[in-house]
Specification:
Layout: H1 2-6, H2 22-53, H3 55-66, H4 81-99, H5 103-120, H6 130-134, H7 139-146, H8 162-167, E1 173-178, E2 183-188, H9 189-195
Antiparallel strand pairs: 1-2
C-alpha cells in the first residue's frame, strides 16, 4: 500500500520493480505524516491559546466554537470562518509543505485530521477507540477544555499534549462512571480531587 500511497507504481516501464523498498517507502510516509502532525499541532496550539487570551479574538471569532458546551461530534467544525482559515487551512497547508508529502499522502493525512477532530468533539468514550489508545489528546482531554471552569486548559489539538505540558496549560483528567445517566464522563483531575475533600 505504501508505494501506491506515495504515488509510485509497483513496476517500471521495463517491467522491473522500482528501486525503493517497501520499508523505505513506508518509513518516508510515516516521517512525512509525523512532521505534518507536529507542525499542525504547534500551529493550532499557538492560535488556539491566542484566541483564548485575546478578548477581541475570543469574543468575535473563537466564541462561536465554545457556544457548544455539550460535546457534539461535528462541533469540531463549528467555528468562525476566520478561525477555520487560520487554524485548519493555514495549519494544514504548513504541515503539508513542511513535510514534503505527496498529494496522495496528504489525502490520507487530512482525512485523519478530520476524523480525529470529530472524534475529539463527540463526547463519547468508546471502548476500543484507536484514537484513545494512540493519543493522550482524545475525547476526554478535549472535553475538559470545553467545560466552563477549565476552558483555560488543554489547548493542544489535534494530536499531542506536548505544548500544554511545556507551557503549563495541561489539565489531567479522570474518567468517571455516571451511573444515574449510564455514561462515562471526563472530569478535570484538579477539580475532581478538590471536590472530594
Amino acid at each position: 500500500m505504501c508505494p501506491q500511497l506515495v504515488g509510485e507504481s509497483t513496476a517500471t516501464a521495463t517491467g522491473r520493480a522500482p528501486q525503493r523498498t517497501w520499508t523505505g517507502t513506508c518509513l518516508t510516509v510515516a516521517c512525512q505524516i509525523g512532521v505534518a502532525m507536529a507542525v499542525l499541532d504547534g500551529w493550532q496550539y499557538v492560535w488556539h491559546r491566542c484566541m483564548h487570551l485575546n478578548r477581541f479574538l475570543y469574543r468575535h471569532v473563537h466564541s462561536w466554537h465554545h457556544r457548544l458546551v455539550v460535546p457534539y461530534a461535528f462541533g469540531a467544525l463549528y467555528n468562525h470562518p476566520i478561525e477555520g482559515l487560520l487554524l485548519d487551512t493555514m495549519g494544514g497547508a504548513l504541515g503539508f509543505l513542511a513535510s514534503g508529502m505527496s498529494p496522495r499522502v496528504s489525502i490520507f493525512f487530512f482525512t485523519l485530521c478530520t476524523v480525529k477532530a470529530v472524534d475529539d468533539h463527540c463526547g463519547m468514550w468508546l471502548p476500543g477507540n484507536m484514537f484513545h489508545r494512540c493519543f493522550w489528546n482524545n475525547t476526554a482531554y478535549h472535553d475538559v477544555h470545553h467545560q466552563l471552569r477549565t476552558s483555560g486548559y488543554n489547548f493542544s489539538q489535534p494530536f499531542f499534549v506536548t505544548w500544554d505540558r511545556v507551557f503549563g496549560t495541561h489539565m489531567p483528567y479522570v474518567i468517571e462512571e455516571d451511573r444515574a445517566h449510564g455514561v462515562l464522563r471526563a472530569r478535570p483531575m484538579a477539580l475532581h480531587t478538590s471536590a472530594g475533600k
